[in-house]
Amino acid sequence: LKNLQALAADVSSLETLDAIYVADQGTDLVESRDGFEQVAKDLGDKLHYIKQPNLGGAGGFTRGLYEVAGHTATEHANVLFMDDDVLLEPDLVIRMTAFSNRAANPIIVGGQMLNLFHPNQLHVGAEYARLNTLEPGQPVEHSLTTADLLGVDEETLKPNRQERRLDAGYNGWWSCLIPYEVVQATGYPMPFFFQWDDAEYSYRARAHGFPTVTLPGAGVWHADFHMKDWDEWHRYFNLRNSIITAALHSPFNLNLLSRVLLAQLVRYLLGMQYGLSATLIKAVEDFLEGPEILRDGGVEAMQEIRRIRDQYPETKRHKATDVPGIASNDIGIINSAPPPSRTAVVLIKRLLDQTRGRHRYGLGAVPADEAHWWHTSLFGTVVVTDANQDGVRVRSYDRAKTLDLAKRGIRVIQRLRKEGAAVQERYLSAVPELTSRENWTRLYGL
Ligand SMILES: [Mn+2]
Questions:
Q1: 55 Cα distance to chain centroid
Q2: Which of 40, 82, 222, 371 is the most exposed place for a label (fewest CB within 10 A)?
Q3: How far is the CA of 108 from the centre of ligand 1 (A)?
Q4: Cα(224) to centroid of ligand 1, in Å?
Q5: Where does the pLDDT of residue 164 fall: very low under 50, low under 70, confident under 90, or very high at 90 and above?
Q6: What's the average model confidence in pLDDT over 360-368?
Q7: Distance 221 CA to ligand 1 centre (A)
């Protein structure tokens, strides 16, 4: 609603836009809010308000592309994706559109992300993903990252400005302009529900000859990523979709990928994050199901992962002052040692200590920033603050769960090594169908 109001109040930005599509999903609708009626009146014919089933961010963003393609006979349109939870500076619309219109060939133009809680901070100048090892968010060489845009560079004493032209691997869809020509050649986004839909799309477009530019001087404010906790049900989509993206756009070296997943699983188990371990196992299992898992756009997977995680008490958030069974004056903060220099040695030592039931600390509290596996694994029970500082979670060592999840995890990762190449082929051949207009028509129930 605030973003619509910002656009309605800025005549020059509004003149740049032929149409504004709002894809409203779920049960908490924007039209139910005070002020919607007024802004709808202000925007007039430009506003197209659409209600649709909840297909996650992927379904919301894609609806804009879908509508533009359906409503215009023209070959060209700049479609600007915008997150619903950003603070919008309407000038962005003018800058991104102008840049796109000056490009000799169609390119994806991304807006930058500024940290909402640190408004002078740029999240990253341009980023890419290491696909085979499932690592998004890598700053491109020479890119500013978590930079104070009002400050100066400590070495050169020059203002923190990005003057180099950098080649982004992808741009997040907090704001991102996709010319319709790109869609004609590349297809629609993958029905991923959410997470990695943006990265996958840029890598697919790149394979069709369309690069992605992250444009300095155009940006939106979005909640700082370091305030998001890793151990959430989203992690299922993050992990599953990253593996699919790796299958589509990386060499998909399965030995390397298996090592990455095993390293993650061991750390989650050591850190007594059993729900997170189960989340990882489910993500790999569902990847191995093949492209049929994307058939309903993720609706069932979302319900299923929440059911699974519900069985693990350490996934539940409590108020810091109201932890069941533990009085807050009973727990002291125990700080973490620095990262171990010999990772493998410490990892094995922690595993042995845990299986023998030896804990250096019976109970303690750990801040979010220090909740590393080498630290939390020293506790019998540890109260860990969430990254968003909204509450805490209680992790307790459980031998039976550790063994069960380790067994299941190793089994599914072995399956991935054996079956991964064949499953990759299935995803590759399913892309045209999954990213077709017909598939999205079906998903939207049209
Ligand atoms: Mn967002």
A1: 15
A2: 40
A3: 19
A4: 10
A5: confident
A6: 96
A7: 10
Helix or strand holding residue 362 (H, E):
strand 361-366
> pTM of the entire structure?
0.96
Catalytic residue among 83, 198, 231, 386: 198
Indicate the domain borders of the chain: 2-227, 234-401
Question: What would the pLDDT profile of 110-122 be if each residue is shown by its tens digit?
Answer: 999 999 999 999 9
**Residue 253 token pair:** 């070296």
Whole-Å CA distances, 196 to 81, 146, 301, 432 = 15, 21, 16, 18
**Residue 198 · residue 172 · CB < 8 Å:** yes
Backbone angles phi, psi at 347, to 5 degrees: -60, -45
CA of 52 from ligand 1 middle (Å) equals 19
Considering Cα of 399, then 401, then 407, then 412, what sign does the dihedral take?
A: negative
The contacts of residue 44 (CB under 8 Å, 6+ apart) are: none
Cβ 383 vs Cβ 327: under 8 Å: no
Query: 186 φ, ψ to 5°?
Result: -100, -25
Active-site annotation holds for 148: no
CA of 220 relative to ligand 1 center, distance in Å? 11
Strand order of the β-sheet with 379-385 is: 361-366, 379-385, 392-396
Termini Cα distance of the chain: 26
* Residue 259 CA from chain centroid, whole number: 22
Q: Indicate the pLDDT class of residue 146, thresholds 50, 70 and 90.
A: very high
Bridge partner list, 135: 130
Strands in 94-198 per DSSP E: 108-115, 121-124, 127-130, 135-139, 145-148, 175-179
Sort strands 361-366 and 379-385 into parallel, antiparallel or unpaired: parallel
Tell me how far the alpha carbon of residue 14 lies from the centroid of ligand 1, in angstroms.
Answer: 23
Instruction: Tell me the C-alpha distance between 50 and 274, whole Å.
Output: 39
DSSP-derived secondary structure letter, 194: S
Which two structure tokens, joined as six digits, stand for 4? Answer: 């619509």
User: Between vectors from CA 32 to CA 31 and to CA 38, what angle results, nearest 5°?
Assistant: 55
Query: For 388-444, what is each residue's pLDDT tens digit?
Result: 899 999 999 999 999 999 999 999 999 999 999 999 999 999 999 999 999 999 999
What tokens does 190 get?
């993958």
Cα–ligand 1 centroid distance for 222 (angstroms): 7
Q: Which of 434, 110, 22 is nearest to 245 (CA)?
A: 434
CATH number belonging to domain 2-227: 3.90.550.60
Which has more pLDDT, 331 or 205? 205
Q: 121-124 and 20-25: which strand pairing?
A: unpaired
Apex 285 CA angle, 282 and 289, nearest 5? 130
